[in-house]
Amino acid sequence: MATDYDTEVSAFEWDVPDAYAIPAVVDAHAEAFGDRLAVRYVDAGGERADRTYADVRDDASRFANALEDLGVGSGDRVLHLFPRHPDAFAIQLGALAVGGLLVPCSSMLRPKDVAFRATDCEAETIVVHDSLTDMVEPVLEETPLERVIVLDGDGEAHPSFAELIDDQPTAYDGPDLAAEDPMSINYTSGTTGQPKPVLHKHRWMYCFSRINAPYWWGIDEDTDLEEELLWATTGTGWAKWFWSPVGVGLTTGASQLLYEGEFEPETFLEVLETEGVTRLCAVPTQYRMFANADLGAYDLALTDALSAGEPLNREPIDRFEEAFGVTPRDGYGQTETVALVTNYPGIDVKPGSMGKPTPGVGTTIIDVDEERAVEADEIGEIAVPVDSPAIFDGYYESPTLDDRTFGGEYYRTGDLASRDAEGYFYFEGRADDIIISSGYRIGPFEVEDALVSHDAVAEAAAVDSPHAERGSVVKAYVVLAEGYEGSEELTDELQAFMKAQTAPYKYPRRIEFVEELPKTSSGKIRRVELRQVERERHEV
User: Closest Cα to residue 209, out of 180, 249, 238?
Assistant: First the structure.
């Protein structure tokens, strides 16, 4: 796909179908090309499972019928907690077909995180993989959860997905869903307090088909999907799962790979080669680790490579270009949005640039203090008009957050950027204290709150610290409680404690013991000073 940027921007028009909803889209795919591969699943041991579009549609219908029998219906929140799995799409589509709202949870969370999400959105149903039930069982009595459905379970403690769909009809006559009906609640980290419940409607998936598919993945009406195999390395609990496997793979009717195994660069390269993946979406950390492998040892069918989560530096781009003739292309957006800025087919990739704003969204850069567009080379905040169809629909049952977020002309992303004379955006950091590490967005409060629950910690401040491979890591400045002294042993103890208290990607890889933390006159921690110290110490 090759495009003229100015032509695409000027010609783009939104035309969201009133009746758009992803279950109906997959139904249509199954009718049109039911025998096309939808999912090729491979696990770390080499076990394989394929699902056609007809398989996905039929199993989703069976699950929808089963959920209806259980009393799950329109507006009900359905948590899901499972790894990449061949039945993931059927479960999600079945829950959506009854009018439910998906609430994705990552397997990297902890029981208290699951409890918070279930309680916050008052979810009564969860679908959990058998290997992850120990994250759910301890919190059942303290949450609204009443129904536990176990994927790959034996059906003894709770009904299994397999037994629930057994003997259910492959047709489902459920509610008529519309583009403006609620679809999902995706929790995202904030600078203070608990994660925020981002509400999306079914329109989100249509926007992905119009934006992420053509202007990031390079998939449009001229793409021969019979010749493509997509692979997005994300997990089911993240917004990126909706950005690509659901929002691009399912909406376009493409075939895609799901690999369930820990990341090892050589293993992933072997999977790329063996399975014949044509389009890859990975995070910058993975590309940086690919760059250290012997890329010349692999013969890939790859025609496109995408990156998201944080800026991708020059070295892995050069290594991929040299080895495979493919230029990894950055895409930028958030849980709240579609791809806002991309290096998409038809424009030159500039080293260090996020690319240009995608057509139709209205992404711009505004002054941090005023709602005015900044000049070229001036740093401001990336923002999107609040009436853009390509952003979220508020925070679930959180009017105070809504008023704060949508009170002006723009939704402000909190990310700083500059724009050159040709319209290319360059990431300049965060306007707030969110930490981005290996593509994960981490709220400092979550780290600090867990740290101070340890007896040895009186106060803590968490900031991002530059890292050559991960982009940034979490750095914790710790003021010790009386009677404790800093040591390597205490550092190890605090890190082990944090891994048990929070999702493991949030633990501080660097800890420094200090006498006091820099604060404002009102007592707020000045993380900006600590970030500056880290940049001076670890600039890469």
Answer: 249
CB 341, CB 212: distance < 8 Å: no
Tally of structural domains, the chain: 2
Residue at which a domain ends, from 150, 182, 201: 201
**Rounded Cα–Cα distance for residues 242 and 107 (Å):** 16
Cβ(394)–Cβ(402) below 8 Å: yes
With respect to residue 63, please indicate whether it lies within any of the assigned structural domains.
Answer: yes
8 Å CB contact between 203 and 18:
no
Query: 498: domain range?
Result: 435-538
Amino acid at 451: L
Dihedral over Cα of 430, 241, 315, 358: its sign: negative
For the chain, helix (H) and strand (E) counts, in that order, are 17, 24
3-class SS shares of the chain: helix, strand, coil, % to 5: 35, 25, 40
Q: What is the pLDDT of residues 355-413, one digit of tens each?
A: 999 999 999 999 988 889 999 988 889 999 999 999 999 999 999 989 888 889 999 99
For every residue of 378-415, DSSP letters joined together read --EEEEEETT-TTB---BTT-HHHHHHHSSSSEEEEEE
pLDDT digits (tens, 9 = 90+) for 290-313: 988 999 999 999 999 999 877 787
Counting Cα atoms < 13 Å in the Cβ hemisphere of 462 gives: 26
Q: What is the CA radius of gyration of the chain?
A: 23
